[in-house]
UniProtKB/TrEMBL annotation:
It holds the Pfam family Cupin_7. SUPFAM superfamilies: RmlC-like cupins (SSF51182). Signal peptide: none annotated. Residues 20-105 form the ChrR-like cupin domain. This is Putative anti-ECFsigma factor, ChrR. The lineage of its organism: Bacteria, Bacillati, Actinomycetota, Actinomycetes, Mycobacteriales.
């Protein structure tokens, strides 16, 4: 068995990752990407920002944890502490009236 220094064990401080603005008021901080395409990221949505178009989940699902604020998927509001599973093939329109921080995980890329 291996501990925290095992091959493949990865850590990264979010403060060390430069945010990438994907749409006005929406940034992504990539944290990790696995060999199979799986990835983890932090997304920040500024107050009033809206994803441009529909965010499709392909090839696999999207896992969302609302770290702070209130996330809206285009229909429903989700407060801090909420977990969402969006299956492959689904979509939503990420946005927030008050702003939010999300942890995203894509198990299949």
């Amino acid at each position: 068995m291996f501990g925290p220094n095992a091959p493949g064990y990865v850590w990264k401080a979010a403060a060390d990752v430069v945010p990438i603005e994907v749409f006005p008021g929406i940034t992504v901080q990539p944290l990790w990407k696995g060999a199979n395409g799986a990835k983890a990221a932090i997304t920040t949505i500024a107050p009033g920002a809206v994803w441009v178009g529909e965010d499709f989940h392909d090839p696999g699902p999207e896992e969302v944890y609302v770290v702070s604020g209130v996330f809206n998927d285009g229909v429903n509001d989700y407060t801090a502490g909420t977990f969402l599973h969006a299956p492959a093939g689904s979509w939503h329109v990420p946005q927030s009236t008050e702003g939010c921080v999300l942890f995203l995980f894509y198990p299949e890329g």
